[in-house]
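Risk register update: the risk of archive-format incompatibility is retired. Evidence:
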Amino acid sequence: MSNKFSQKDGFTKLAGTEARRTLAQKLIKPADRLRDLNTKFGRRVYSVTLYHTRWTGRVRGQGTESIIFAKDILPTPLIIDMGTLQEVATVHGLDEAGSIQMNEVSGRFTEDMLLGIDSEGREPLDTDNVFFEIEFPRKDGRMGERRRFELRSAPSYVPDQFQWHLTLGKIDENRDRDGNLR
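Archived output:
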């Protein structure tokens, strides 16, 4: 019986691209199809998008923000604890604060993708933002408010569940229904 993987002292050692050929990796696609049923059945009536943006000024928040990269997180992941967000008074009025859990993020994503590191291995610049935007559509079909969240800790991959677990923290800049920052 031939082994497709590297051997060291009689044990399997995954190296390089060999991890992509494991059974766990091959089961990600069927697991994603099953997860998508939650959206089809109306159990996940929101969308999640990963954004990488850049500001024209010398630092983040200065100048004009433009989108470098936007990727829908599909199938729709499971959002836990959205009810834990609290309204807090700020000098600009009421804002939301707190953190949420986002589970069942497809194993197709890599840690680099979720961190905003590009395919060439370059990390975000000081003028960049990497965040997740969650939108709950309104019952009348119009766009809902788009809440922005950033990673609060490193993504955690669970190979036997074919998914990533993320802890996200609320950030101030939401977009309104017309897509403008508020």
